[in-house]
Amino acid sequence: MRTFLAGLCLLILTPAVNAAAQATTDSARRSPAPAVDAAAAPGASGSGTAVGDLIAATRNALNDLKYSDAIELAHEALIQKRLRRSQSVLIVQLLGAAFYPDPDESNATANVDSATYYLRRAVRLQPDAVLPEDIRWRGLDSLYQSVRANTFAALAQPAGEYALTGVDGRAFIEVISARPANIWLRSLNRREGTAVVHDSVRGATRARLAMRAHDGQRPLFIAGEYELQIVVVDASTRNSDTLRYSAIAFGVPPVLEIPPEFPTRAIQPERARRAIASGVVAGALVGSLSVAMARYARHDNAISANVSPDARATTVGVLTLLGGIAGGILDRGKPLPDNARANAELRANHAQTVAAIENANRKRVGDYKVELRIDGEVAR
Amino acid sequence: MKRFTGAVVALASLALSRSAAAQRSWPVDLQAVATNSSIRQQIVPLGAENVGSSISLRGYEASLIGPSSGFGLYGRYSAGEVGGASKRQLLEGRVLIGSPQFRLELGYAERRHALVDSSLQYLRGGFTTTTNLGTSGIAIRLRAIGTMPVKRDGVPFNQHLGWEGETNVSYTWPRFPVFAQLGYRIESMRHPTGDEEQSSLVMGVGLWLKP
């Protein structure tokens, strides 16, 4: 009868408890604190605190094979405020164990669905969490492995504050994934709505993603509010999880000089134009004059009256025309060394100017400092 | 067919030679050429019919002009067998003013006149244009010269006047400053004893340093 009442009570309370537990775990996930701490580790279940007492009582109930009591105590622990992530993980693991008792030790009926639900919650809270030794048995291990294999989740452990300097002063965020995944770290500037991808890895269960203050061309963080997003996509199933963290950046980005564009209009031709036109014109003109001279450049006398013009002039005229055309076609353009020198000087001066500006910009970028404060995880 | 083959070979060698290194530039325009002129000569003494003959002259020409100074010198000499004897046909010197592309020429010449069979002195002046067709090595030249005797001996000016016109096309080897030219020249001279006309096919080879 007592068991029945307890079960009825559980059925009535479960949705509310679950909601509360979800809120609590969400709250826990928002915290940038480390996932596991000594107080919540197996064997040291937060003694001295209300939550710690409840956890200890839950463990005792499990040891005494009082599964219904364990479930009640665990639910009570879950609705406590200011739960740490490690405590939440432990509580839902205990709940999973309570719903899935060892049949060799107890005749209690296993509720596989509920056990699976809570174990999945545990995996989502901390993908690499292991079951405490005192609650493990072969069947629960097997179920936990199965749940872990079918649950995709990721966990990040950002610090509370980062100091980024220039291009090379990087900060890192550790990310853990339940399964091999492709992971991206990006920042979203809330005011401008622009996103920047800082780092990514492929097919990893653990990643150390880096972010920088400046990429050498533009600042990646400027003063303002940001949302850091860690997008984790299961490499095999394409399931995804996105972890979001509010952040505030402080820093005045350097003003960079823009190198002048190369003055292409000032470039002078380094070869003269091909002499096609002048070849044709000169060939035609001089060739015609050759014929004309033979015909008309003669004194008005008996010679011009009796002797016809020299036909060889026509031959020379035609060859002159052909020579002019051939010369124009074969010409590649006469080199203009003065122009080539002037162009080389122009290029060298421009390169020198650009190098000086780039050096100055590099120094300014190298001195750029950004302080990034992580406010906490954004609720999903 | 042989002429055609020769033309093909000439064109092929022209194209091949273009792949060689471009000719360097020189500080002056210096040209020295040995010529062979095939001349058809006509003379017409006063009151008589014209008489034609063919002669062949060998000659030398040289010119030097500084592109920056705008001044230069030109000299020409030619001689050949005339009437069974080797005779000097022309000895000439000119001062050049201008550039290698266009220059005015003023000079003095001793030229053999066929009618009197002796050399007469002339003042000559005119211009020469030279069009170098870029890097092709081909150049086209036009020359026009007027001739006036130094001593007119009371003869009217228009009865002494003569002129000379010349066109030629030349090709300079890209690797070496050696060139060949083919040209046409006509000279028409007046003298109190009669008129003379020489129509020449001029071929030459020489050295040409271009600025």
Key structural traits:
A: 380 residues, alpha+beta, Serine Threonine Protein Phosphatase 5, Tetratricopeptide repeat, 3 domains, seven-stranded antiparallel sheet, 20% strand, B: mainly beta, ten-stranded antiparallel beta barrel, 1 helix, 10 strands, globular
Explain this structure to me?
- The complex is a heterodimer of chains A (380) and B (211).
- Chain A folds into 3 domains: 24-149, Serine Threonine Protein Phosphatase 5, Tetratricopeptide repeat; 154-257 and 369-378, Sandwich (Immunoglobulin-like); 264-358, no CATH class.
- Chain A is built from 10 helices and 7 strands.
- Chain A has helices at 2-30, 50-63, 67-78, 85-98, 112-125, 138-150, 276-296, 302-306, 312-330, 337-366, and strands at residues 154-157, 161-165, 171-189, 195-211, 224-234, 240-250, 369-377.
- In chain A, strands 1, 2, 3, 4, 5, 6 and 7 form a 7-stranded antiparallel beta sheet that branches.
- Chain A starts with a helix and ends with a strand.
- Chains A and B meet through helix 7, helix 8 and helix 9 of A and helix 1, strand 1, strand 7, strand 8 and strand 9 of B.
Give the secondary structure arrangement, pairings included.
The complex is a heterodimer of chains A (380) and B (211).
Chain A: H1 2-30, H2 50-63, H3 67-78, H4 85-98, H5 112-125, H6 138-150, E1 154-157, E2 161-165, E3 171-189, E4 195-211, E5 224-234, E6 240-250, H7 276-296, H8 302-306, H9 312-330, H10 337-366, E7 369-377
Antiparallel strand pairs in A: 1-3, 2-7, 3-4, 3-5, 5-6, 6-7
Helix pairs in contact in A: 1-3, 1-4, 2-3, 2-4, 3-4, 4-5, 5-6, 7-9
Chain B: H1 2-17, E1 29-45, E2 51-65, E3 71-82, E4 85-98, E5 102-113, E6 118-132, E7 138-149, E8 162-172, E9 178-191, E10 194-209
